[in-house]
Amino acid sequence: MQSRHWAGLIALSLASATPALAAGQADAKGFVEDSALNVLLRNAYINRDYSDGRQDSSEWGQAAIANFSSGFTQGTVGFGVDAFAAYGLRLDSTRRRSGNGGIDFFIKDSNGNPEHDVAKGGAALKARLSNTVLAYGDLRPSLPVLNHDDSRLLPESLSPTGTLEPVDDRHNGATA
Predict the structure, then answer these.
(1) Separation CA 8–CA 6 (nearest Å)
(2) In a domain, 176, yes or no
């Protein structure tokens, strides 16, 4: 009898919570209707001028970065997708001037020369319940305790992992 009492209370609490959770999804316009595609062109140059006698280093590149963020499906739990693609083209750098650990835009090939281009892409699935998003895949989070590095030619991504975060006004909380 005791377990039936608890089961009834749990069922009642879930039934009463469903409208409150669904109210958070009321502003969901839809998977396609609330989608966004942004393209960013970035030109980056980095120069390290060493005063200790080592050879100075520098690299220069042009990048195109496309970010896609879908809206969420309507319903108590909304589902969506975030994706990105990035391509970087080397404009100037030689074996003599490249190769600084930690600042390279372009990795070196088997001959020790910097690669001519670099590309990366990724996607993340996301689910929204009320004001919380759970995402899995290639993420570029901007959280107080975890943040991706967007200071180089191509942005960094964390993959694969999951994170919980509040939904921001742009609806693309996972990989904005």
Answers:
(1) 5
(2) no
- Residue 72 neighbours by CB under 8 Å, 6+ apart: 25, 28, 30, 31, 34, 78, 79, 80, 126, 128, 171
DSSP 50: -
The answer to whether residue 140 sits within a structural domain is yes
The tens digit of pLDDT for each residue in 149-171 reads: 788 888 888 875 454 555 554 44
Q: What is the tens place of the pLDDT at every residue in 64-122?
A: 999 999 999 988 899 999 999 999 998 876 666 666 655 667 777 788 778 888 899 99
Q: CATH number of the domain that 142 lies in?
A: 2.40.160.10
Whole-model pTM: value is 0.69
> For the residues of 130-167, what is the DSSP string, one character each?
TTEEEEEEEE--B-SS-B---SSSS---EEEEEEEEE-
Number of structural domains (the chain) is: 1
Q: Which residues, other chains included, contact 106 with Cβ-Cβ below 8 Å and sequence gap of 6+?
A: 59, 61, 88, 90, 93, 98, 114, 115, 116, 117, 118
